Amino acid sequence: MNIKEAKKEIEYTIRSYLAKDEAGSYRIPTERQRPVLLIGPPGIGKTAIMRQIAEEMGIGLVSYTITHHTRQSAIGLPFISQKNYGGKTYSVTEYTMSEIVASVYDHIERTGRKEGILFLDEINCVSETLVPTMLQFLQMKTFGTHHLPEGFVLVCAGNPPEYNRQVRDFDIVTLDRVKRLWVEEDLPAFFEYAAGQRIHGAVVSYLTIHADHFYSVKNDTDGKRFVTARAWEDLAGALAAYEELDQPVTEAMVGAYLQDPEIAADFKVYYELWNRYRKVYRIPDVLSGAVSSNPELAAAAFDEKVSLLVLLAEAAAGELAACSAEKEIQKEIFGELKTLKAGLGEGGAGSVLSFLTERSRAREEELGKARELRLISPERERLARLVISGLKELLERLAREGTGAGRGDFALAREWFSEREERRKKGAVRARERLTNVFHFLALTFGEGQEMVLFLTQLSRSEDAMRFIAENGNEEFYH
Asked: What is the band of 323 on the pLDDT scale with cuts at 50, 70, 90?
C-alpha cells in the first residue's frame, strides 16, 4: 500500500482501539490491541503521517527513535529494595520507571489528553541488548514492570533489510502479535501531499516529467546513492528559502539533499530552465488577463509544457488557497466577537479591549503549547498566527479609536470586521476571475487537449483550491 492508504488504515485501527462500549470500557481490551508495525523504505513520510493523524484526531503523540535508547533508558535503572518473604527480609532488584513510559505520563499531564499514540521509529534496528526488551514491549506493552498507559496505542515503524544492514528479523511469535503494514513509495500520493504543503513547483514539475527519479536507492563502486521523498520535500523548502533571500542555488546545495550525483545535476539544470520559464511566460500577466494566449507554446516540447502548466496551477491554486485561508481566519475571529457580544449582553464581558487582549494571549499560549508538543501542522500553525495577528490588529484599532465604553468599542470592532469581510469577498471575486483568465489562456493556446487535462489534474490536487471552487463556483472549471 502507499503512504496515504497506510494513514487511513492506521486511523481506522486507532479508532477501533479507542472505541468504548456502553459501560465505558474499551471494546477491544488493551491486551488484544495489536501494535501497528509499519514497514517501508526510509524517507517516505512514515513519521509525518503520525503527526497528521494525531492532529486530525485530536489525540496525543509521543514519538521516539528507538535506536537512540539503551536497555537502561528503556527499562529503567536498577535499584535494590527490601522485601519480606516468609518472615525473612531479602534484597531484591527493582527498576525505576522507563524513560519512554514516563514520557507518555508526562505528555498526559501536560496536555490533558489521556488517549494518544506512542510512535517508536526504527523498531527493527535496536541494539542487541535491547532486542528482548523490545519484543516484550511489542507483545505485552510493558517495559520491565511498567505498562503503557491505557488509551495510548502503540505504533512502530521500521525499514526493510535491503535499506539498513542493522535490521533484525522478528520471529513468528512476535509477528503474530502485531498488525504489520507494508508501505511503498508512491508518487501520486506525494503529489497530493505536496499540494497541501505548497511544495515548490520546480520539484513537482520535475517529478511529473521524471517520475523514475522520485525514489532511488543504488549501491555501486562509489558507494550508496539515494534520493527519497523526504529529500525532495526538504529540498523544496530550501529552494523557497534561498529564493526569498536571493541566494544562488548551486549543484552542491542540491546534492546535499539529492544524494545521487546524476539526479542532482539533472535537477539543477532543470531548475535553471524553470526559473527562465517563470520569467518568459509572464505568469502574473496570464492570471491578470494581460496575456491571453501564446500560440508558440502549442509546438513546444512536452517538458516545457509541463513546466508552464505547473507554474500556472501553482499560481492559481495559491491564490485560491489564500482566499480559503482568509475565510477560515474570519470564521475564527467571528467566533471570538460572537462570544464577546454574548458577554456584553449578559453584562459580563466588561472591557472589549481587555477581553480581546486576554483571548489573544490565550491563543498564543495554546499555539506555543501545541508547538512544544508537536501537535500542530505548519499549515494550522500559520492559520493560528494569522488569527492572532488579526486580533492584535483589532486591538491597535481599538487603542487608537476606542471609546472606553463596552458597547461603543464593540460597534468599532464590528465595523473593523465588516471591512475585513468586504476585502475578503472582493479578493474571492478577483481570484475567481484570475482562474477564469488561466482557463481562457489554456483554451486559446492549446485547445481542450492533454494540456488542459494536466492543468486540471495539478489544480485538483489542492484541497484548498477545490474547496474555494465548491464554495464560489467557476464556470470554466466545471466546463
From this structure: very high
CA 152 to chain centre: 21
Q: CA dihedral defined by 274, 279, 283, 284, rounded to 10 degrees?
A: 140
For 203-237, how does the pLDDT look when each residue is reduced to its tens digit (9 = 90+)?
988 998 898 899 888 877 667 888 888 899 899 99
Question: Does the predicted model carry a pTM greater than 0.90?
Answer: no
The band of 349, judged by pLDDT with boundaries at 50, 70 and 90, is very low
Neighbours of 429 (CB within 10 A): 12
Q: Residue 186 corresponds to which cell in the numbers above?
A: 508512491
Tens digit of each residue's pLDDT (9 = 90 or more) over 236-259? 999 999 999 999 999 999 999 998
| Diameter of the chain measured on Cα atoms | 98
